[in-house]
């Protein structure tokens, strides 16, 4: 793509968990670069993300990741209109690295600074390389830390319809995987193993909540762990593939049911599914089937935009930029920032 002078080029920075990421996005949708340094291999030996180790590794990588994002886009810092960084929710030590780096760039290049809510970033992943997808729509955010249903009434306007009371879907995937002896992060491993098992082999529970758009996965997680421990105590052979498939089906069932119900509740015929768990093959399959039946236009970004990345942060930043919503140097990391 050859750039025009009035194209808006946003540099996005994301360090809320275990990915050090930077990207340049043009006009809120065209991804000129998307650089991700994943710390998965570093945290794998601990079975999950260690906050202090995450922060230290962000410090070691942030400058080269940002430089690579600029180089791959063929741009210098002086070509960038604004720098957008995640300031919450997430791990405080990790957030501070990307956010303070962004402050430094903003000050040095004299360009605006924009603070982005990580969940808003996930929602904006629906706009990447897809200029046809515009609000209003319902967004299902399913990741390791978050599980929300949101009515996106306009750019930057969010009405939270439902959220998890306890674990997020990805968290449940990771914990069940760990108990099956699978490496971190477990979602993709369960996805793979489930293909060899029976989704109806074991009747795991689905939580029923007062707000039909809320979620709860801790009861399901406990039921799976009890099933595993019970069988071990009785000396029974475990069929790991059946456990993975039946657990995955219980999660996917609820995600699909609630997402469809949310669309019907607000009268929307557009659904975006974002966040790491949106990579799940069974979730994609069942959603595609249900949405086709009900005439709901489904959009799931490609996997690299579903898991944590900075292109989504830059896309969200674009909409703040055109409204002139800028932060100043007092911007702080907020671990439990709400949408
Ligand atoms: O969005 P993300 O990269 O980080 C957060 O914001 O949390 O999501 C990571 C989560 C992890 O829990 C991971 O196990 C899960 O997404 N995940 C999957 C799959 N790929 C990643 N869960 C189920 N099936 C998958 N294929
Ligand atoms: Zn995320």
Write up what this structure looks like.
There is one protein chain. Helix 5 (169-179) runs antiparallel to helix 8 (240-266). This protein has helices at residues 40-44, 51-73, 92-109, 118-124, 169-179, 186-194, 218-233, 240-266, 281-293, 303-306, 311-323, and strands spanning 9-14, 19-26, 30-38, 82-88, 113-117, 137-142, 147-154, 157-163, 270-274, 297-299. The mean pLDDT is 96. The strands form two sheets. It has a five-stranded mixed beta sheet, sandwiched between helices. The protein has 339 residues and is of the alpha/beta class. The longest helix has 27 residues, at 240-266. The two termini are 33 Å apart. It is built from eleven helices and ten strands. The structure holds 5'-O-[(R)-(carboxyoxy)(hydroxy)phosphoryl]adenosine and zinc ion. The site of zinc ion (ZN) has 5 residues, from helix 4.
